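Protocol step 4 of 6: structure prediction from sequence.
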Amino acid sequence: MADSQRLKDRHALITGAAGGIGLAVLEAYLREGARCTAADLPSEPHPAIAGLIERYPAQLHYVSANVSLGESIDAMMAAARGRFGPVAVLFNNAAIFDMAPLLESDERMYERLFDVNVKGMFFVMQAVLRQMIEADLKGSVINLASQAGRRGEALVSHYCASKAAVISYTQSAALAMAPYGIRVNGIAPGVVDTPMWDQVDALFARYERLAPGEKKVAVGKAVPLGYMGRPADMAGAAVFLASDEASYITAQTLNVDGGSVMS
């Protein structure tokens, strides 16, 4: 099916763009006509992003950014605006994962997860919202949450709490931005087959004494639709929420999880 150019000429900023969900959303936004600033931690773009720059040289530019640092967020925003003007769409995706039994979860793990998943998410969102208001843009912010933010898990306490915070900040920001016509929503993926799941599976294997790969198979079978999601499954929702088709949707976190969470 031909792409509909639903995001034609809109400037989209995608954080955590180098792999998995971020890369899938970046590709979808480009196909839909957006001009994209792709941001991730490495100083040079991932080969997949470099390949996209070759295909979309007038639409895509890469910025190295560490969202846990305020000065890095400022530099990212200046670079994005300098290339394509004010940001009209934010896909706020940068995040990290870790886990441990509750009594073994230390302050260092807590700080790492909250620095990126909560502080980084919030201050990137804040910077983009300020830019939207200054430019009088009725833009769209999409924060990446998780089904983990809908419940607690014994081994995943800090990550679950960080993603619950994403959902809460999404609601608060949506209410604050409604008078400006700016929409703020979230996406809560379920289990998605990304490179990060190799790390997740290895950690579950360690703490639950499972064979490598066993957890991944089990969580896929537990999804009502019977399989793990793909990054591209998140991209459709991300395009929809960024587009005019979602113009009356705000303060929502959309479950894209094969039926694992019902709300």
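Step 5 (inspection) to follow. The beta strands are 11-15, 35-40, 60-64, 89-92, 140-144, 183-189, 253-256.
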